[in-house]
TrEMBL record, chains A, B:
UniProt cross-references to Gene3D superfamilies, sorted A to Z: Tetracycline Repressor, domain 2
Protein's recorded name: TetR/AcrR family transcriptional regulator
Species in which this protein is naturally found: Paenibacillus filicis
Matching InterPro entries: DNA-bd_HTH_TetR-type_CS (IPR023772), Homeodomain-like_sf (IPR009057), HTH-type_TetR-like_transc_reg (IPR050109), HTH_TetR (IPR001647), Tet_transcr_reg_TetR-rel_C_sf (IPR036271), TetR_C_27 (IPR041478)
SUPFAM superfamilies, sorted: Homeodomain-like, Tetracyclin repressor-like, C-terminal domain
Length: 196, 196
């Protein structure tokens, strides 16, 4: 249906995401995606230089829409204090990751693979999340709710310290019941480290 | 060389470790190991029920000798206070993991695979490490150097919070230079959470 003029980035990404889900990212070729778009693979290559680039772009969009944007809304809330907002933020991050690992395994597997292959894009995504946390922490310091310190370093510390609960390399451990006790133990020490 | 009488567990594990290293755990068969031991594979199966059991036993011994025992010596030191001993303990754990990931990739790959397959053995190993930390923390609480609390829960919290730096699923990230800054940020928040 698509002609070259209608071939927007959004249409390519929508189609690529569908095809990746249907065939799996390993078995999908650029030709498969071009076929569904009814364009030549040469045309598609003018927009994305490789299958890896397409896979990365689809994952990047998914991370923004499914993870970063909903978390930004929590970070921006003005109705809850910093400490409680941090907890809501981490609970949302962790439950989103667990939900997608279980309910959207195709996309989650692609995201896990991209985490290893597209270090720069993932680094950018993670930095965005850490900035959200840093914003909450800065407000908490100003409100004399949290200990003084560098909001960026504190945010980086608590993000890295909770990796076990949101980094895709640990997805197989999220089904074990002990994971909730483990998070409670981690959170207790972290809170003690940041609260005034 | 070996006859059935001389076929000790240590000899089997020494030989299995050598053969796993030489051929890689995937390509090694129980028959390969039996051949080097000059026993029938039936004889070997009387000691270990499967290749998976052999692989698990070799990894378990390696974890004890290379990780748990040297760390126990640090945990038992009486010449340094709890806070400093905790840092020495974690530095030793993290540098041992990094060293083996780089310098003994065959054994490290086997350990990474076993981490997914032999959850019970790994769980037992991890619980042993957490008990070592809990011992240090208990002494620190008694010395009024650390905040009061459950030593086991605090130890579990700081072990889980440092997963990014010692869990084999993160080995590919240990080569990035930012990992040392990340650990410093995590350690700073954790120390703030446990020190009196």
């Amino acid at each position: 249906m698509a002609n070259e003029q209608a071939l927007t980035k959004a249409l390519i990404l929508d189609t690529a995401e569908q095809v990746f889900r249907r065939f799996g990212p390993d078995k999908t070729s650029v030709v498969d995606i071009a076929k569904v778009l009814q364009v030549s693979h040469g045309t598609l290559y003018r927009h994305f230089a490789s299958k890896a680039a397409l896979r990365e772009a689809v994952t990047e969009r998914w991370l923004n829409v499914s993870i970063a944007q909903p978390l930004q809304e929590i970070a921006d809330r003005t109705d809850v204090q910093a400490t409680e907002r941090l907890r809501i933020w981490f609970d949302a991050l962790i439950s989103a990751k667990r939900k997608y690992a279980l309910e959207d395994p195709e996309m989650f597997a692609m995201y896990t693979a991209v985490t290893l292959d597209a270090a720069e894009m993932i680094q950018f995504h993670v930095q965005g999340l850490i900035q959200q946390i840093a914003g909450i922490i800065e407000e908490g310091i100003q409100a004399q709710e949290l200990k003084a310190g560098s909001p960026g370093a504190i945010a980086n510390g608590i993000f890295m310290a909770t990796s076990r609960f949101h980094h895709p390399a640990h997805a197989s451990e999220w089904r074990v019941q002990a994971v909730d006790t483990d998070f409670a133990d981690v959170w207790h020490v972290l809170l003690g480290g940041i609260q005034l």
